[in-house]
Amino acid sequence: MAKTSVSDPQQWVSLYADYLYSYAFVRLDNEEQARDLVQETFLAALEKIDQFKGNSSERTWLTAILKYKVIDVYRKKNSGLQAESAEREPELEFFESDNGHWKEAYSPQILGVENSDPLVNKELRSILQKCLQKLPSLWFSVFTMKHMDELATEMICKELKVTPSNFWVIIHRAKLNLRACIQKAWL
Amino acid sequence: MGVIKKIQYNCRHATYLIEKRQHTALTLKERLHLVIHLSGCSVCRLFQRQSRMINRLVRGLFHPANSERRKLDDKSKREMQERINERLTK
After folding, report:
1. Which range in A40-44, B68-72, B85-89 is most confidently predicted, on average pLDDT?
2. Which of A35, A174, B39, B71 has its CA 20 to 30 A from that of A82?
3. Chain B: nearest CA to A116, how far in angstroms?
4. Domain range for residue B35?
5. What is the pLDDT of residues A67-122, one digit of tens each?
6. Is residue B16 part of a domain?
7. pLDDT value at position B63?
8. Per the CB < 8 Å rule, is A21 touching B79?
9. Distance from CA of A23 to the nearest CA of B (A)
10. Interface contact A35-B16, CB threshold 8 A
11. Domain extents for chain A?
12. What is the SS3 assignment for A102?
């Protein structure tokens, strides 16, 4: 890829709008919200165009601005949800309450795709997308920030006001739910 | 129930540790717990493989090679372009 160090905002829409829109959509699952954030990103970038150093690509720079806008949406969506989500024990859906053993009905079964290339398997990917949408909002936010964006745990805890111990509980719950949802749809 | 038996039964805690280990280092106690549990529990070993597969899948959701990339409609693009032009000529 050619490295462009001089930024030309006239070209942004044609070069990056689809990319940024896809980035926002997969994280928000809302077309209107995704579109608005892309627009806001372009305008915010114009404001601080003198900060663009050209040592990262223009796309990377714009994506970083958009990333914080997505986090902002997560934060607003999740403020005030903490107490409720910490109190329930959804693990008991999957495990026996006395010894923590898998409940028969929820025990993982071989799916036959454990080693498949996720980029190749379209069907699996569309199931995953549907299952992600079923997660409670806070779990979804924590899960995508960790898994899609690979953000530091400390940062996610701070932004979403989650305690470190609750963070791991949420990561665990989100995965248990996703896996069970995929199994149900796949088998 | 003895300590080892308890660890062997506790898939709930083992799966929690499997998730945690994918992001951070476990304590010695946690590592021991997981080794003991996984050595005797094929179901949790399967969970671990599927969990990693899901992680790869999630990372692949937004990937340049992903052919199902979304396109923004032309009308929105025109509006964006207009707003950018407005700012630039100010």
Report:
1. A40-44
2. A35
3. 8
4. 3-65
5. 999 999 999 988 866 555 555 688 888 999 999 999 999 999 999 888 877 666 78
6. yes
7. 66
8. no
9. 7
10. no
11. 9-78, 82-186
12. strand
- Residue B45 identity (one-letter amino acid): R
- As a whole number of angstroms, the distance between CA B30 and CA A97 comes to 21
Cβ-Cβ pairs closer than 8 A, A with B, add up to: 140
Query: Are B57 and A128 in contact (CB < 8 Å)?
Result: yes
Other beta carbons less than 10 A from residue A77's beta carbon: 15
Work out whether the CA dihedral A113, B47, A145, A3 comes out positive or negative. Answer: negative
Mutation for A interface: B58, B73, B88, most A CBs within 10 A: B58
% of chain A residues with pLDDT over 70:
90
Reported ipTM: 0.88
The verdict on a CB contact (< 8 Å) between B60 and A119 is yes
What CATH fold (topology level) applies to the domain A9-78?
A: Rna Polymerase Sigma Factor; Chain: A (1.10.1740)
User: Measured at the alpha carbon of residue A125, what is the angle toward residues A115 and A137, in degrees to the nearest 5?
Assistant: 115
Q: What is the mean pLDDT of residues B2-11?
A: 92
Asked if the Cβ–Cβ distance from A9 to B68 is below 8 Å, we say no
